[in-house]
Write a structure and sequence with these properties.
alpha+beta; globular; two-stranded parallel ribbon; four-stranded antiparallel sheet; single chain; 2 domains
């Protein structure tokens, strides 16, 4: 009889724990959507899969990271989030849409869509910090950290693991019936929650992204050589842009969205509604002539609080000169 009672108590305790996890999970996801996030999923904090670790290490060994030496740092922490933030039990993955309603005209210099508005680091961090505070104040006290491209975290892997979408052949996180134009961020917290299931890859036989890449930067399926990629060459790269790649810029002076633009899933993208991510009229109306005569003071004013400052004034001038030099050949 006592054993039977013990089993009943244990069962009731487990059911209660599951019920609480479900309740907390639903509250977190509902608040994330209320704050304007496009998607929210949750994964258990555990080492990444052996296949993902091998893929990442092979990418590094091939030198595809270029001058982004920081990608080689803290490898153990990238592969096991529990080493990055001690006590982490759950990873809340968040996505925020940045697909622009108004795009630059084809006869203007082109900027990556993600850079149209304010710096996504700031926009994401504010929203995620608000969610973190909500969890502490309205759900239960937690310890943890908030990350948005600011720590050794494999953002796309965790978005996949948390069920948001799959990593496509263009190496972007693709959300079904929404596309890949999303900023990603994570909350590392020390409570157990209900976990989502990873989605299957739905790229099928499509390889439009690989065919459309101006510089043929995809060395293989799901493997991007950043040293050939126009996004890397015009933003992260601090050296001169090699002529063979500069000749493919076609007016792109900050980033390149071609592999996203041609992706069939992008047709489902809807314009973002986050005010901070919308372009200013000063930016959207800039002519090539105005870019070519842009002063450093004008640059600082135009891109105050913008991710474009990553390339710096000198980098942007280099990109413009490279784009123009190829047009004159």
């Amino acid at each position: 009889m006592e054993a039977k009672k013990a089993v009943q108590v244990s069962t009731t305790f487990n059911e209660t724990a599951v019920s609480i996890r479900d309740k907390y999970t639903n509250q977190i996801k509902a608040e994330a959507l209320r704050l304007g996030f496009s998607a929210c999923g949750i994964a258990p904090a555990e080492p990444i899969t052996p296949e993902a670790e091998q893929h990442f290490k092979e990418w590094l060994s091939a030198g595809y990271q270029g001058e982004m030496a920081y990608m080689e740092n803290n490898l153990e922490k990238r592969c096991d989030p529990r080493l990055l933030v001690e006590g982490t039990r759950s990873i809340v993955s968040l996505a925020l849409n940045y697909y622009p309603q108004q795009q630059l005209h084809k006869d203007q210099y082109q900027f990556a869509w993600y850079a149209y508005g304010k710096d996504y680091h700031d926009v994401m961090r504010e929203k995620m910090s608000t969610l973190f505070a909500y969890i502490n104040e309205q759900i239960c006290p937690v310890n943890g950290r908030v990350f948005c491209d600011t720590a050794p975290v494999l953002d796309r892997y965790w978005a996949w693991r948390a069920g948001l979408g799959w990593i496509g052949k263009n190496t972007q996180l693709i959300i079904p019936r929404a596309g890949s134009t999303f900023f990603l961020g994570e909350l590392f917290i020390d409570i157990e929650l209900a976990y989502d299931t990873p989605q299957k890859n739905r790229c099928g036989n499509c390889n439009r992204c690989q065919q459309a890449c101006p510089t043929q930067a995809f060395e293989a399926l799901y493997k991007l050589n950043a040293t050939k990629c126009l996004s890397y060459l015009t933003i992260e790269n601090r050296s001169e842009i090699p002529p063979q790649y500069a000749s493919k810029m076609d007016g792109r002076i900050y980033g390149c969205d071609e592999c996203q633009r041609v992706c069939p899933w992008t047709r489902f993208a809807t314009p973002c509604t986050t005010p901070e991510l919308k372009p200013s009229q000063d930016f959207i109306q800039m002519s090539k002539e105005e870019w070519q005569t842009l002063t450093e003071e004008q640059y600082r004013t135009l891109f105050k609080g913008s991710a474009v400052k990553r390339a710096k004034y000198s980098g942007l001038q280099r990109n413009i000169e490279a784009a123009e030099s190829t047009n004159q050949i």
